[in-house]
Amino acid sequence: MSKTNAELMARRTAAVPRGVGQIHPIFAESAKNATVTDVEGREFIDFAGGIAVLNTGHVHPKIIAAVTEQLNKLTHTCFQVLAYEPYVELCEKINAKVPGDFAKKTLLVTTGSEAVENAVKIARAATGRAGVIAFTGAYHGRTMMTLGLTGKVVPYSAGMGLMPGGIFRALYPNELHGVSIDDSIASIERIFKNDAEPKDIAAIIIEPVQGEGGFYVAPKEFMKRLRALCDQHGILLIADEVQTGAGRTGTFFAMEQMGVAADLTTFAKSIAGGFPLAGVCGKAGYMDAIAPGGLGGTYAGSPIACAAALAVMEVFEEEQLLDRCKAVGERLVTGLKAIQAKYPAVIGEVRALGAMIAIELFENGDSHKPNAAAVASVVAKARDKGLILLSCGTYGNVLRVLVPLTSPDEQLDKGLAIIEECFSEL
């Protein structure tokens, strides 16, 4: 007997804690590339990509073939008990791709939060210091340490009390909202004056393009000054590339476009095409700061996920997805700016790095009045018309586009047409 979304939502409400949010009241049954089919047989264009996880699209045949082959060989040993080659091969490939002209090593784990937690552990062990500086608008995960690093209380840590100490908040540079590069650097210097000496700070962690915070791109000049500041004080620079990594911004890692390299880089999401895999890559000396047994996890670097990630890298090469990313970004940004020109009082800015695209909405063109209601309306209207969108931003007033890079042009154009129709109905 076929099930309906409403029936499954009722079962979900009874069985799953309310803290597990759900943006769309839809249950997916199957998917292919950038199309999702729900349990009622309705098709949707997927502009969410599982929140930046499906740069290579849903169930890419090469990835599925690699996973199927691995399934028939080995599913689990725990790498710390019995090792397997796909883990090592993937680490070798990540070491070669992460920016930085120095020897690197890579740790594989399971989730983005876990990657960030381990990056902080490594930084603390490597420096002998405990403090960490993060930024306003940051999102780094839902575990206790990463909640402390995340710059948004509601909904992520609301009602949970204070998060771990030793974390300090600097201003993320944001020209649209009046935070200059000088302002941001000055905010770090204020931390050094008011809260913690530089010798107590192990790391500064930053997203080269903020994810949940609203897809704001860190200026190249800021990254250079941040790198110099870290070098001056012996602080490690951690680039959180969980959302930007694996080709979303037009280079495999966004830091390739920032003019400097981080000491440690976290990655996850699209690295394995929908299979749970994450990791930390960094300078070999820092990565070796923790003694044997201090890193790892039961499922960390699963052979299934490693096989998927190796296939993802092959797909990027064979299908030239970095070039495709740039083309997707240009096509969508051009279309969205045309929509902006029609509705300038609502759409304040369209911004992107590669195909990591955001549309920020304001009330009557006033950048001091975020329009979360309009975003919620567009997300709901788009869903009714067959397009899956996401919102983000500190004030919930940003639409974000994370469509699979493999989506054909005609599907991108159809998605744009739906977005324009939604704005015409506001």
Question: How would you characterize this protein structure?
Answer:
- The chain is an alpha/beta fold and 426 residues long.
- It has helices spanning 5-15, 49-52, 61-71, 85-97, 112-127, 144-149, 181-194, 220-233, 284-287, 303-318, 321-342, 372-384, 409-424; strands at 28-32, 35-38, 43-46, 104-109, 131-135, 167-170, 201-206, 236-240, 264-267, 278-283, 347-353, 356-363, 366-370, 387-388, 390-392, 398-401.
- A seven-stranded mixed beta sheet has the order 4-10-9-8-7-5-6, with helices on both faces.
- Strand 11 and strand 12 (356-363) form a beta hairpin.
- Helix 3 (61-71) runs antiparallel to helix 10 and helix 4 crosses helix 10 (303-318).
- It is globular.
- The mean pLDDT is 97.
